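REQUEST ID: PR-0412
SUBMITTED BY: lab tech R.K.
PRIORITY: routine
TASK: structure prediction, single protein chain
INPUT:
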Amino acid sequence: MATKNFIEELEWRGMIHTIMPGAKEQLEKEMTTAYVGIDPTADSLHIGHLVSVMILKHFQLCGHRPVALVGGATGMIGDPSGKSQERNLLDEKTLRHNQEAIKRQLAKLLDFESDAPNAAVMVNNYDWMKEFSFLDFIRDIGKLITVNYMMAKDSVKKRFNGEGDGMSFTEFTYQLVQGYDFMHLYEAMNCKIQLGGADQWGNITTGTELIRRKLGKEAYAITCPLITKADGTKFGKTESGNVWLDPRYTSPYKFYQFWLNVSDEDAERYIKIFTLLDRETIENLIAEHRQAPHLRLLQKRLAEEVTVMIHSREEYEKAVEASNILFGNATSEALKHLDEQTLLQVFEGVPQFHVEKSALGEAFLDFCAVQTRIFSSKGECRKMVQGGGLSINKEKVTDPARPVTGEDLIDGKYILVQKGKKNYYLVIAE
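STATUS: complete
OUTPUT:
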């Protein structure tokens, strides 16, 4: 067994909400298998999934065997927990595609490939649920759990008490299907623990109850708190939606920026949850940060650790370089290295002007005051050039008559004009 104790590790990180009696003793007794259910409604995880994935990571590091269950069958039904609307149902082809994509992401964090006895395993509940007939299910499983028991669950009560449009029979049966998953994994893989968010407690305990009633055995539940932001709003959502782990949906630059911009209070919690840094390192970082919060040491380290873990060291360095272009003293070389997507994201929200490529060749003065209206007059522009406060593509302009040509275009399309320290203008030549 590994030296680290899983429960102790999670407790100091603030990652435990409820532990069923006996779970701790089970983990101390032997290498144990536990699973987390992951909803495959998209072909990428988002940072809301990252909490349960980090729990699986710690579980494996503490010498136990993690199982990632992709809910192909349950994804076809829709979990009522924390939802006020029924979700869209997916076909099998989409589910398989999503499963493969999710496994590739999980493989960056969990060891699936080694021959260690605690190598991670991925399963899909569709594989065992698809053969089950409705009659078999209600005869063998449905009769073990009373409707009274199912109605007592918070996730069901909330929907019956007027949240959303009520609850379909399909969703009502969700806890039975999830409970059966736990029982199946108990029998097939000796899986004795289910891990999940606090909102899953009702579904998980239905599983432990099924195992007790059908098999006469003990199984356990451990849940983690639902992560929120200090202001009480939902973690992981931005104005533009989810923060995804797949760079096609959220670029490494935006991903890095998300972590860099969390509040001081959130940074202190998140660095424990979303990194593998040890306790001493984290406590030292928090102490340093509190001495000089304006340096944002905690946010910078958090953003570094998570971006490197999910993307790569190279992508992290590119994101830092891109951030420096906007907020630091970056060079024109750094600006020219940016790919188009990152360039547009870095300068999202700055004023934009469109010019025709055929109009290039004019003096800087005309470019800024006539073609683009960055300045309302040539005199104002000339004055700023003389004061040394204007640059084009991060290079200071010293001569107001200097022509702006095709050679100034970044990516053959963009020119960045900077007025003073903080005012940027993006000119798009088409």
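NOTES: The mean pLDDT is 89.
REVIEWED BY: pending
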